[in-house]
Specification:
- The chain is of the alpha+beta class.
- It has helices at about 80-90, 150-160, 190-200; strands at about 5-15, 20-25, 25-35, 50, 65-70, 75, 100-105, 110-120, 120-130, 135, 140, 165-175, 180-185, 205-215, 215-220.
- Strand 1 and strand 2 form a beta hairpin.
Amino acid sequence: MKYDNIIKATFLKRPNRFIAEVEIEGAREIVHVKNTGRCAELLIPGCEVWLTAPGTEGRKTKYDLVAVRKNTGVLFNIDSQAPNKVVAEWLSTQGYDKVVPEYTYGDSRIDFYMEKMTNGTLTRTLMEVKGCTQEFDGIGYVPDAPTERGVKHIRELIKAKQDWFDVALAFVIQMDGVTEVRPNIEIHPEFGVSMDEAKAAGVEILNLQCHVEPDELFIKE
């Protein structure tokens, strides 16, 4: 996926989880942060950030903050809407006969339902997508804030596996150089428990490696 327009800025502070104060060519600007997670190890005063201007009428802020360069030099896409968009693009190249986003299963909406006919056999797959924007020592971690909704979705996937679906939990790694995602049990122990339960139940765990540019994010084959 690509952003239509992108500009560079300097991060100053984050008064709350929805907005940040940045400096653009010497002028201070309040921008929307497209990630309600903590991002504490990324959004450090003085760091390089990248903004896009959607141009939506009636907005309180002109810009969205979508990417940040960590003090290690690695560029992170932190747009929480990006993972589903890049997975939709990727799935369109994977030979499925049908891809349905926001599929209702049980009490949840699972991100994708896919169908594929192979030699007369229909395969039905449910996939839940999680973005990964946290990295320590070359390992990605999810979540960076407690997520009861995330635990609920994983347990819905386990139930779906018992109902004879093929089931996958896909982590979109929103940075270069990371190949593995682990549950952040210090932030949310129950998420780690649900991940262990999912693996034991046969849920496929996908670590989708990405390439990040200030104006682009895509899954590498």
